[in-house]
Every structure is written in structure tokens, then in C-alpha cells.
Amino acid sequence: MNELELKYGCNPNQKPSRIYMEDGSDLPVTVLNGKPGYINFLDAFNGWQLVKELKAATGLPAATSFKHVSPAGAAVGLPLSEVESKIYWVDDLGELSPLACAYARARGADRMSSFGDFISLSDVCDESTARIIKREVSDGVIAPGYTDEALAILKAKKNGNYNVIQIDPDYVPAPIEHKQVFGITFEQGRNELKINDELLSNVVTDNKEIPESAKIDLAIALITLKYTQSNSVCFAKGGQAIGIGAGQQSRIHCTRLAGSKADNWFLRQSPQVMNLPFVDNIRRADRDNTIDLYIGEDYMDVLAEGEWQKFFKEKPPVFTREEKRAWLDQNTDVALGSDAFFPFGDNIERAHKSGVKYVAQPGGSIRDDHVIETCNKYNMAMCFTGIRLFHH
After folding, report:
1. Which residues, 6 or more positions from 388, have their beta carbon under 8 angstroms from its beta carbon?
2. Whole-angstrom Cα distance, residue 380 to residue 237?
3. Beta-carbon count within 10 A of 112 CB
4. Running DSSP on this structure, what letter comes out for residue 199?
5. Cis link prior to 173 (omega < 30° from 0)?
6. Is the Cβ–Cβ distance between 149 and 139 less than 8 Å?
7. What is the CA angle 113-90-295, rounded to 5?
8. What is the pLDDT averaged over residues 149-159?
9. Which of 198, 200, 214, 286 has the fewest Cβ atoms surrounding its Cβ within 10 A?
10. If you compute the radius of gyration of the chain from its CA atoms, what whole number of angstroms results?
């Protein structure tokens, strides 16, 4: 099949819409179920590139959760701890496959952003992964294949309308890519840069030690940034992105946004949050939104009299700023990647508040000396990759 007609483009008024192969060859994808749209395919193709590259770089199954052509989360298939299983709401599903662990991490890091996601999987989707997908609000999934059991589960989702796409894992796109803006065609070479340990070899700080686990996290951060709308910054820890700041005009705003998401990820692991006495049968989306409000500045939205009874069996105490800070201070050894250089040390100051110990960024700012000095103040190890990773 050379082309596929779509319902409409980015918006319902943008018609006609289709995807097709300009050279006359067959599309490398098959729609197994549903009717994916224009934005679905943008998410699917960007997400597939990300997980394919993560798998190649780490040797582990990978998953990503995309929203509006940027990842809300990305992860590799490392085993989940008991705490992680609980905060990702998969502790009732028994033993999970490595691919299922990867998606649980990718979906769970930022549950507010990943609500209604499009999923990309590096490996054949198995029943374990499909069972997680089944219970989440999601628009669709792309993978190189599906087991019979997984496909049956996914086809039943959304009253039979869930989007399931299979992609040819051996498909290689042309080395030159094109896009049109305002009727004008842009052309560039594809970004085929390989993210590997060599990019992390130029350590410019006094602390030169970057352990293997941190190198994996830095690779995850950089590969995630490669497919994130710029400007962008990514915090990673334990084999997953834990905070992504995408599409900001100012780099410090990227860092603040990613840092706040990383903080929320860690706050959700605190006893105050894990022991919240939710009412029975609370909807998953309501529970996630309640947690987000409870750990934020607007906590009275769910603790005010007449409100807390909607969510909790008994009124929880306020999670004070001092208590949150004390808990966040326990988060350490976080990795941070940036798609372009840090112009000032304020980004490092903000990163330090979220437990960052390892940094990878291109370098090349006229204030590199100040950024390095700030890293040295906190005994961080920072490498200059020499490579920018803008994506638009």
C-alpha cells in the first residue's frame, strides 16, 4: 500500500490529509486496527525512532509515551522496584515482562502529560505489555509486531477502535528528508548521529567519574532529546526519563519545567503520597490529578472542606514545603541532558535542587567557564558532547 488517507490533518478543517511514499514504494506500516490520524502518525514515527535507538544503544527493550510530537516519558526495560510498581499502578498485575516494565516506566514518570498518549515499543508487544495499555487512556500504539494474545486485548480497547500500527523494523528512510512550510520545501540530511559513550568522553569538570549506570541514563536523556521539540532538557534516573522540559523558548524555563516534573516523580514515592487514603473506586485520572494537586502549590483544591471528601476516606495532612524539601534532598545521582549549551550557571543551580550529579550538554557558550565552575561547586561531573540536538 503506497498511501493511506486520513480523516483530517492537525485540525478538522485541514483537508484533505494522507500519508504516502513519494517514491512510489509501499508504506512501511500496516494499520491492524482503528483509524490513526495525522498527529497519531507524527507521534508514532517520532516515537518509533526514539525506542529503536534506545534499544540499539542499551540492548534493552524500550518504550516511549508521546503527546503532541514530544515524549512525555521514555524508558528501558529494567525491573521495577516495589515502590515503582506502586507509583506506576501496576503492582496488581503480577510479574511483568521487560517490555512491560519499560512502558510502565515511560507512562508512569509523568502521568499527567502521558494521559491520552501514543505508545511506541521497540519489541513485539506481548500480553504483559498489552494488559498495562488496556487500562490506560491512550490513542494508539506502534510496534514491530504483536503476539496473538496482545493483539486480541488491544483490538478490544476503545470499543474496538483503538489504533494499532505495525511497522517494518527493517525500514530505512532516505538520507535526505523534506518538509513543506507555507508552500516552501525545506530539505536537510537526516539526523543519523549515534548516541554512545564516545559522546560522553570529554568530561570538563573536576569530577571525572561517570559510572556505567549514569552513562545509560545520560544516553536515555540525549536520545529522548533527539526526538523532543526544542528547546528541551531531560532529567533521567534508573533507566528512564523522569522529567522532560520541551518546546520552551528559554533554556532556564526548560530546566525548571523538567526539574519540577522530576521533583513530582520523586515526591510521589514519599510515604505521605503513597499512603494517601483514597476513596474506593476513584477513577485513575481523578487519582492522578488529585496527587498532582496535593504535592503542588494548589493543595487546598483537594484539601478544602467539602472537597477532600470527594477523594479521600479521611482528610490527609498538608504536605508542607519543608517536608517536601526534606524528601527531595534524598534524591541523588540524577542525570541531565540538554539539547543545546547552557548559557549560564543558573541552569546548574536549578538542576542541583533536583539531585542532578551528571550532566551532558554540547558546550560552546561564552560562559562555559561559569557553568563548569557551578558544576564544580556541587561536585557534578559534566561532559561536553560537542553536538546540538535540536528537533523541529
Report:
1. 339, 340, 341, 362
2. 15
3. 13
4. G
5. no
6. no
7. 45
8. 97
9. 198
10. 21
Q: What is the mean pLDDT of residues 69-90?
A: 96
> Is 68 labeled as catalytic in the residue annotation?
yes
- Out of 163, 231, 264, 347, the active site residue is 231
pTM for this structure?
0.95
- The whole-angstrom separation of Cα 221 and Cα 239 is 9
SS3 state of residue 25: coil
Which residue is catalytic, options 52, 55, 67, 215? 67
127-131's contacts with Cβ under 8 Å and 24+ in sequence apart are 127/153, 128/93, 128/95, 128/96, 128/97, 128/99, 128/100, 129/63, 129/97, 129/99, 129/100, 129/103, 130/154, 131/93, 131/100
pLDDT at 269: 97
Q: How far apart are CA 293 and CA 295, in angstroms?
A: 6
Question: Which grid coordinates are listed for 26?
Answer: 509501499
Contact between 233 and 251 under an 8 Å Cβ cutoff? The reply is: yes
To the query of whether residue 261 is one of the catalytic residues in this protein, the response is no
Q: How many CB atoms lie within 10 A of CB 164?
A: 23
User: In sequence order, what are the residues at sequence separation of 6 or more whose Cβ sits closer than 8 angstroms to the Cβ of residue 364?
Assistant: 341, 384, 386
Going by their DSSP bridges, the two strands 232-237 and 240-246 should be labelled as antiparallel
Q: Give the C-alpha separation, 342 to 184, whole Å.
A: 32
Nearest by Cα to 278 from 301, 309, 312: 312
Pair 101, 128: CB distance under 8 Å: no
Q: Residue 1 pLDDT more than 90? A: no
Count the Cβ atoms, other than its own, within 10 Å of residue 108: 26
Of the candidates 363, 30, 379, the one whose C-alpha atom is nearest the C-alpha of residue 206 is 379
